[in-house]
Write a structure and sequence with these properties.
The chain has 19 helices and no strands. With 523 residues, it is an all-alpha fold. It folds into 2 domains: 193 residues, no CATH class; 225 residues, no CATH class.
Length: 523
């Protein structure tokens, strides 16, 4: 029995009671199946090492997966630059504006599964994971149909926001060809959250690695060797994303997920509206964060020396993007850890997972920042030959270093929010801190006080700092015992106690009663 529990719950704290007692307990019972209280430095170090192993078991492959999938678009842009300047501009605009906008929405809506699947897995309600994923597929594909209008009307929309006619037309045609990628997003992120909740991260890393290698080779073959240009870029990029989706679906259907996938079910059509609301809250929370930094580059484009400012910020954004992929990996890991432990009614383990993740992310961010500061006069040479641009990048490096440290901590806290199901509350926090405080302060510093790009970034970074402090306060004030009870209630609300499950429980209880009666009679 113990061996099977370990295999089913590889990253949960050890179970001291029979699993069915824990699964069906509607109310959290204090001091059951949780890590012991930490009473000294020795206890802290011991639990820190144990939790670090669990965290990195998830975070390592998750970071690699994020970087690999992030690199698909980057590789396409590199080869597009070899085809021509207009082709590079078309791919860049479509990738960053059209696909980037839709990516934020689909990834955000898909993150609702991090809450539900993670907590259901921790509570042992494995059969609900597949139903949650199917519900998310329905909602995200319906959303993709609506978002496809952005791809269809990309040409006039780009002209409307001030892009040149040539770039708008080329990007508009390319966007039409990239509609299959949008539906790949809608299928991919629910599958990823489904697998993440079960700690099946390594398979996603392997699939992403194969996709990246194949994507690089076929991009060279079709775009340069066979001279297909943007047509080749669209074919390869769509194929790479759909390869990831199909490979993950084959893995799920092959039986490697056990009880988590029991086939397609009509239960996926139940509670859809409530599921839509949670998905929208997750999307708003995620998009407000993603679009915040996009606004920084947009505002820099209205400064006097706009070209130099935008180029310098783009270099900083490129570096920040790679570091954010690392923090996204830790975000996914801590979200899984917190949701699993809350679902299993382990509030101390959930809280300690947060502590370990914050410390780990802070150390990673600090190391990366120190490297940038030490080599601040050398690394700009890798990105630009313009002395004016390099000079601005050197001036922005301390701000970039600070931004990396803060942005390594902030996604971890966001991951905790997703794991605990606080998406709606954090969405309001993001609106207040980012758009009511950070942006106005950045515009005041940048334009009114004439601090330029450094002023805009300083003000907007202040919004990120404020948001991080508010999240810290929310976590500090959290009653983790109550969160564990809410996790059980949330699982029940979203179908965790289905009629079939109740019938199975009743049958099992009747069987146990009959066995007990028979034993009593025989004795």
């Amino acid at each position: 029995m113990e061996e099977s529990d370990t295999q089913t719950h590889p990253l949960l704290t050890p179970l001291n009671q029979p699993q069915h007692n824990q699964i069906h307990s509607a109310v959290f019972a204090a001091n059951s199946d949780d890590i012991p209280p930490i009473n000294g430095a020795g206890d802290f170090i011991r639990e820190f090492l144990i939790e670090s192993k669990k965290l990195w078991y998830l975070a390592g492959p998750a970071i690699f997966t994020s970087i690999s999938q992030y690199s698909l678009g980057a590789v396409t842009q590199v080869f597009a630059g070899q085809v021509g300047t207009l082709q590079l501009a078309a791919v860049s605009i479509e990738n960053s504006v059209i696909a980037g906008f839709c990516l934020g929405i689909t990834l955000g809506m898909g993150s609702a599964l991090e809450t539900l699947c993670g907590q259901a897995f921790g509570a042992g309600k494995l059969d609900m994971l597949g139903i949650y994923m199917q519900r998310s597929w329905l909602i995200l594909n319906a959303t993709a149909v609506i978002l496809s209008l952005l791809y269809i009307f990309a040409d006039p929309l780009l002209k409307l926001i001030g892009q040149t006619i040539a770039i708008s037309e080329a990007a508009g045609v390319f966007a039409l060809w990239m509609i299959p990628q949008l539906f790949a997003y809608a299928m991919n992120y629910p599958i990823q959250k489904f697998l993440q909740a079960q700690s099946k991260i390594m398979v996603m890393a392997w699939i992403s690695a194969v996709a990246l290698v194949g994507h690089t080779f076929f991009s060279w073959l079709l775009m340069l060797r066979l001279r297909w240009g943007l047509v080749g870029a669209a074919v390869v990029l769509n194929s790479s994303w759909w390869f990831i989706v199909v490979a993950q679906i084959v893995y799920v259907l092959s039986g490697y997920c056990g009880e988590a996938w029991s086939g397609f079910s009509f239960q996926a059509f139940q509670n859809l509206w409530g599921f839509v609301r949670l998905s929208l809250a997750s999307a708003v929370m995620m998009c407000l964060e993603i679009w915040y930094f996009m606004a920084l580059i947009l505002f820099a484009g209205y400064l006097e020396n706009a070209e130099v400012s935008v180029d310098a910020l783009s270099i900083c954004a490129n570096i920040l993007g790679w570091t954010v992929m690392a923090s996204f990996g830790v975000n996914a890991a801590v979200s899984v850890r917190v949701s699993n432990e809350l679902g299993a009614s382990h509030p101390r383990a959930a809280k300690f997972s947060l502590v370990v993740a914050v410390i780990t992310s802070f150390v990673i961010g600090l190391m990366l920042s120190l490297i940038l500061i030490i080599f601040r006069k050398e690394y700009p040479l890798l990105f630009s030959n313009d002395p004016a641009v390099r000079e601005v990048v050197v001036e922005l490096t301390p701000m970039l270093a600070l931004c990396i440290v803060i942005n390594n901590i902030q996604p971890v806290l966001s991951g905790v929010a997703i794991g605990a199901g606080w998406q709606s509350a954090v969405a309001y926090v993001n609106i207040a801190c980012y758009y009511l405080f950070g942006i106005p302060l950045g515009l005041f510093f940048g334009y009114y006080l004439d601090f330029g790009v450094l002023g805009i970034w300083s003000g907007m970074l202040s919004g990120t700092v404020l948001q991080t402090l508010v999240l810290f306060f929310m976590v500090y004030r959290t009653d983790w015992n109550n969160e564990a009870s809410l996790a059980e209630a949330r699982i029940s609300k979203w179908g965790g106690h289905s009629k079939d499950l109740k019938m199975k429980d009743n049958e099992k209880n009747h069987q146990e009663i009959h066995e007990t009666s028979a034993n009593s009679s025989s004795s």
